[in-house]
Amino acid sequence: MPFSGQLSYGQISLWRDIQTLPRDRWHEVNISAVWELPEGTGAAAVKDALKALVHYHPSLRTTYDLSDPQNPVQLVHEPNSLPDLNVSEEVVGDIEETARRMAAQPFDLTLEFGWRGRVLTRSGMATHLVFTHHHLTADNWSQGILREEFPKALADPGSFLGRADSYSLITMAEDQRGDPFKARRTAAERHWEKVLGASAEIPQQPRPTSADGRFPVLQASVRSTAAQSAAQRLADRLSLSKSSVLLTAYARAVAQVCGLPSVPVRLQSSNRGNARWGSYVTSMNQWAAGCLDTGAGTGFGEFAQTVDKAAFLAYRMGVYDPDSIRLIKQRFPSASIDPEPVWAFNYMVRPAVAGTAEPGESDIPVVKWEQQVSAIGPQFHTRFIEDGSEALTIWLRGRQVGKELVSELLLGIHEVLVAEARELGLGKQ
């Protein structure tokens, strides 16, 4: 008999974003990862390691009762009652294509666990594991936790089998709604009120459509060693995190390209500051709210200090009741951060994966157009991705826009970074 309970704030935030999606779009929140396996690993050992992780992490053995979409319930199954795991084998081919194909297969979270594995083999030996999961099961931070734990489970699966009751996502959900958390809930609501009030009068631009009247979803990226070097040198010179430097360049580029006095922005918060919750595997991400004055007339360094403080406050308020915030938003119908924000920022650090490296790293920015996977979320969703290489990837997905604007934004962000580093005498060494 599974344990049942309400969803945490992170889980319910994700669910609110997807609950009205038609079935043919259920896959849009799937995430695929490719993990290289030690030489000589057998497929059976991979399955034993995954079973150990499922035993330890409750989200990997959870289904959901979605019969009342406004009040979803998670059903955590006992480790000893698990069915056969959703793990299959395939002869290794195009690894990235396998990952894309698996991510395109939707999950029915009412009937199955929100993950699946594919062991890629060559000459009977396992070479890679493609691990695909629904975002409600695990966010990107959680994927990093699983990636770190998987080799340990591979070496000693028994070390995880006695840890099934180490933590409870249902207890976390109850704690977030309890009295001890009330002060944080109230502070977050006041923060949202302030941000929504500040962004209410900002123009809703840009909202151009394509020439033929359709609303395309475009996805592109720029990968550059010059941008990586510039961002790191600016961060070192200004004594700021690289995330704050990138957010500053992002806000300044948006202001220059679109002529905005301020940028109402959502910052993706991992919400892992709580020592107790930091190692939980679940969906804990929420969009933190900010409104960044674009710093007209101020230097990059001074503007970056202001952005850093605003981002710190936003992230501090990153755990909140999304349904309460939804009621607050209704009082600000003209606020450009709501209901679908125009601008969103996300800084991600991903480990490099052998066999999937991006070729052609260069100082010269080139816009690379990609196949669109998801249309969920903000109109302009920008990610800055580090993968352990010398290049920074600036990724942007835009809805209801043309290629010209997407290219202008990507190249504009790149130019701000490189130009500001050059201005401060921080050229690449």
How would you portray this structure in words?
The chain has 429 residues and is an alpha+beta fold. It has 12 helices and 14 strands. The protein has helices at 9-18, 43-56, 95-103, 140-155, 158-161, 169-176, 182-199, 225-238, 242-258, 300-316, 322-329, 403-423; strands spanning 3-6, 30-36, 62-65, 73-76, 87-91, 115-122, 125-134, 217-224, 262-269, 286-293, 343-349, 367-369, 380-386, 392-399. Helix 7 (182-199) packs parallel to helix 11 (322-329). The N and C termini lie far apart (62 Å).
Low-confidence stretches: 207-213, 353-357
- Number of DSSP strand runs: 14
Mind summarizing the main beta sheet? Answer: 7 strands, mixed
Order the strands across the largest sheet as they lie in space: 10-9-11-13-14-8-12
Counting helices, strands and paired strands, the structural category is alpha+beta
- String of helices and strands: EHEHEEEHEEHHHHEHHEEHHEEEEH
* Number of discrete helical segments: 12
Share of β-strand residues: 15-25%
Distance from first to last alpha carbon: 62 Å
Radius of gyration: 22 Å
* Shape type: globular
Approximate helicity band: 25-40%
Mean pLDDT: 88
Short description:
36% of the residues lie in helices and 21% in strands.
